[in-house]
Amino acid sequence: METPIVCQVKMSIPRSEGLRRPDFDWDRTKWKKERIEDFRIGDTKLTPAAVAYINNVLQWKTDLDLRGPAEVASMNESPAVPMVKWIHHSSSAYKAIFGFGKPGTCTGAGPEMMAKNFRVFCDPANYPIVAHCISGADRTGALAYVLNGVLGVPADELEKDWEITANSYFKYENFDDLAGGFDHFGAPSAPLHEKIEAYLHEIGITPKEISAFRAIILEN
Fold this sequence. Notes:
The chain is mainly alpha-helical. The protein has a single domain (40-217), classed as Protein tyrosine phosphatase superfamily (Protein-Tyrosine Phosphatase, Chain A, Alpha-Beta Complex), CATH 3.90.190. It contains nine helices and three strands; from the N terminus they run ααβαβαβααααα. Strands 2-1-3 form a three-stranded parallel β-sheet, with no helix packed on it. Strand 1, helix 3 and strand 2 form a beta-alpha-beta unit. It is globular and about 50 Å long.
């Protein structure tokens, strides 16, 4: 008697409309603009050629490092020294950016670090900026959601950007906590960019700072 074999295939089906189109190209390597050597756990693996490329071609001025203390270990400068300023803000992701207060209020390290991170992008002297955590999906993704969202990028485009980066089915509920958290800010019928703006006000960002960021990014 033959033993039946049951094969269960689990796959991630994209939720955002743009990714479900038949003509969407899922080759994510095409979304990587520049490949530079990896550096993790406080150890630089940047080659001299990579450092030269960063300084001479990409011309980074600021390395905004969102990793935790254990991840950066004894680092005290950017691996791309001497031209790049290293800013280390141990940051949070997903619902932690709203802190631990009641919905619509923000207290704790998560909101405090988001405010610090946002202010880095309000100063034109810091540009070009590279912001990263250890994988570029969670903590970096939360910051990117706020930065792009307050500029008016539609919710579906924000979700598409996250899906392309994370491509992890089990994290959808975490993403929902992030996206849904902004529903507690601003008027119920307000567009997403106004809700994110209200969140930024709640964590201490001023209208002048938001205007400065928009002027830098949206300048002609």
